[in-house]
Write a structure and sequence with these properties.
The structure holds two protein chains of two kinds.
Chain A: E1 8-10, H1 15-23, E2 29-32, H2 38-43, E3 51-54, E4 64-67, E5 70-74, H3 79-83, H4 86-91, H5 93-99, H6 105-108, H7 113-119, H8 126-132, E6 136-141, E7 144-149, E8 154-156, E9 159-160, E10 167-174, E11 179-185, E12 196-202, E13 208-213, E14 220-221, H9 223-229, H10 236-249, H11 260-282
Parallel strand pairs in A: 1-3, 2-3
Antiparallel strand pairs in A: 4-5, 5-10, 6-7, 6-10, 8-9, 11-12, 12-13, 13-14
Chain B: E1 2-7, E2 10-15, H1 22-29, E3 48-51, E4 54-57, E5 70-72, H2 84-91, H3 101-114, H4 120-126, H5 137-150
Parallel strand pairs in B: 1-5
Antiparallel strand pairs in B: 1-2, 3-4, 3-5
Classes of the chains: A alpha+beta, B alpha+beta.
Chain lengths: ~290, ~150
C-alpha cells in the first residue's frame, strides 16, 4: 500500500533554515526525525501534510552530553543511542530502562526520544519517565528560543505545547542523586505498546515524582500521591495509602489492548512494586535497572 | 527528487517522489526483492534492511531520507557465498516458508556485529521485532547462538 498523500520534502542544513521554512509555509507541515510514527500515519492517511521537513541534517541536534549538572539530549538522539550511552546509564538510568522497552531494535535504531513526546500518544514510553525527571523541553521558533516545563508539554491527545512553527532542539534534565523505575505492562515481552506504565523517581530526602502512562489522554503526573509521600520513608501502610489514591488519579479507557478495570488494577500493582524498587535502588540495592517488574 | 544511495555496494541514482518508501524503491525500482511487504506499519520486521549497518524498517523510511547512506539487504551479505549465519540457518532448519528469513538474518547480523557472543536472552531481545508466523523461533535462536559461539563472523 503506497502513501496516497502527496507532499513536498525539504531537508534544511541549519536550524535557521528549518525555522525559516516553518515560518514561511502557510499550509500544513510536519517535522520528520526518525519517522517511525510519521510514515505510519502518512500511510494510514491519519495526517496529510503538504510539506515534510526532515531535520536529520541539522547540526547539533544529535548531541547527548553532560553540561555541568545537566544532561542534554538532542532532538535527534535515538532510543538505541540512549541505551548505548554510558552517560545515561550513569546519570539517568531510567532513560535506558525505559528505552529498552520501546518497540523493537529496528524501531529503536530510528525512533527518537524527542519524537516520541512530540507524537504524544497516551502510551508513549518517554512521557512518564521525562515527567518523573522534571525535564525541560527547549524549542526554537520565529520568536527565538523558549523552554517548556515537561509538566506543561502534554496538552491533549497527540497535542503538545509546541507550536507548528517551532522546532524542539533538545531536552535538559537537572541531575540529582535518585532511585527510579519505569514499569511497563505489555501483553508480551518485546515489541508492544504500553497497556499501562509507571515512572517513579525518588530523591535521598524522599521527594517523589510519580507519573503514569496509557491511563489518561496524555501521560500524567500525580501530585496527590507525591504530596502524600513527600518527606516520608516507605512502609507497608504508606504504600497502601498511595495505592488507594490511584483509581482517583487516572482515567483509563477500555480498548483492544486492555480494559479500563485491568489497567487500573495493574497500575496499582505497578505503583506498589515500583515504589519498593525505586527506594531500594536509591539505597543501592533492589533489582538491576532493566529488570522487568510485571 | 534525486536520490543517491549505495545499495549492497553499488552506487545508485534514482528519481523518487517524496512519498516513496525505501521498501517500495528497493523492490520496484532496484529489483531487490528480499525485503518483504508484510504489515507495512513497522510491527513485523519482514521489510528489515540495514542502513549504515543498523537495522531499520524500510516500510517506515522514506526513500529520500536514505540519500547519502548505505543500504544492505541479504543479497549484500551473500556476495562471497553464504555467511556463517546463513549456513547455520540451513543446518538448523531455521525457516519454514522463509518469508521472515531475510529480515531475521539482517537483524541477527546486526546483533552479532554489535555483540559477537550474545546470550539466548540477547538473541530473543534482538529478534523480538521479527515475527515468524510458522512459529519457528527456537531453531532460529539456536542458529544465531551457534553463529555467536563460532566467533569467526
Amino acid at each position: 500500500m503506497v502513501i496516497a498523500n502527496e507532499f513536498d520534502y525539504r531537508r534544511p542544513a541549519t536550524l535557521a533554515e528549518a525555522t525559516d521554512i516553518l515560518a514561511n509555509h502557510s499550509g500544513s507541515v510536519r517535522l520528520l526525525a526518525g519517522g517511525t510514527d510519521l510514515v505510519a500515519w502518512l500511510r494510514d492517511d491519519a495526517i496529510a501534510p503538504d510539506l515534510v521537513v526532515d531535520i536529520k541534517d541539522v547540526p547539533g541536534l544529535h548531541d547527548l552530553k553532560l553540561d555541568g549538572d545537566t544532561l542534554h539530549i538532542g532532538a535527534l538522539v535515538t532510543f538505541t543511542e540512549i541505551i548505548e550511552s554510558d552517560l545515561v546509564h550513569e546519570h539517568a538510568p531510567l532513560l535506558a530502562e525505559m528505552s529498552e522497552t520501546v518497540a523493537s531494535q529496528g524501531i529503536r535504531n530510528r525512533a527518537t526520544m524527542v519524537g516520541n513526546i512530540c507524537s504524544a500518544v497516551p502510551s508513549c514510553d518517554a512521557g512518564p519517565v521525562l515527567l518523573a525527571y522534571d525535564t525541560t523541553v527547549h524549542v526554537t521558533g520565529p520568536n527565538g528560543d523558549r523552554t517548556i516545563d515537561i509538566n506543561d508539554w502534554f496538552v491533549g491527545l497527540r497535542q503538545t505545547a509546541r507550536t507548528d512553527d517551532e522546532v524542539v532542539t533538545h531536552l535538559t534534565i537537572a541531575l540529582r542523586s535518585h532511585g527510579g523505575v519505569y514499569v511497563k505492562l505489555m501483553r508480551y515481552a518485546g515489541e508492544d505498546l504500553a497497556q499501562a506504565s509507571v515512572g517513579i523517581v525518588v530523591s535521598p530526602d524522599y521527594d517523589y515524582r510519580i507519573a503514569f502512562g496509557a491511563v489518561a489522554p496524555t501521560p500524567i503526573r500525580s501530585s496527590r500521591i507525591e504530596d502524600l509521600l513527600r518527606g516520608k520513608a516507605l512502609d507497608e501502610a504508606l504504600i497502601g495509602e498511595a495505592v488507594a489514591l490511584v483509581s482517583g488519579e487516572i482515567s483509563p479507557i477500555t480498548d483492544i489492548r486492555a480494559s479500563a478495570e485491568y489497567r487500573t488494577r495493574m497500575t496499582e500493582i505497578m505503583l506498589k512494586r515500583g515504589l519498593v524498587a525505586a527506594t531500594e535502588r536509591l539505597e543501592g540495592t533492589g533489582p538491576a535497572y532493566g529488570t522487568r517488574l510485571v | 527528487m534525486d536520490l543517491k544511495i549505495k545499495i549492497n555496494g553499488e552506487d545508485w541514482t534514482l528519481d523518487v517522489a517524496p512519498a516513496d518508501t525505501l521498501l517500495d524503491v528497493l523492490r520496484e525500482r532496484v529489483g531487490t526483492k528480499s525485503p518483504k511487504i508484510g504489515c507495512e506499519r513497522g510491527d513485523c520486521g519482514s521489510c528489515t534492511v540495514l542502513i549504515d549497518g543498523r537495522s531499520v524498517r524500510s516500510c517506515l523510511v522514506l526513500a529520500i531520507e536514505a540519500d547519502g547512506h548505505e543500504i544492505t539487504t541479504v543479497e549484500g551479505i551473500s556476495y562471497d557465498g553464504l555467511s556463517e549465519l546463513q549456513t547455520l540457518f540451513l543446518e538448523n532448519n531455521s525457516f519454514q516458508c522463509g518469508f521472515c528469513t531475510p529480515g531475521i538474518v539482517l537483524s541477527a547480523t546486526e546483533l552479532l556485529e554489535q555483540n559477537p557472543n550474545p546470550t539466548r536472552h540477547d538473541v530473543q531481545e534482538a529478534l523480538a521485532g521479527n515475527l515468524c508466523r510458522c512459529t519457528g523461533y527456537e531453531p532460529i535462536i539456536d542458529a544465531v547462538l551457534a553463529a555467536g559461539d563460532g566467533g569467526s563472523e
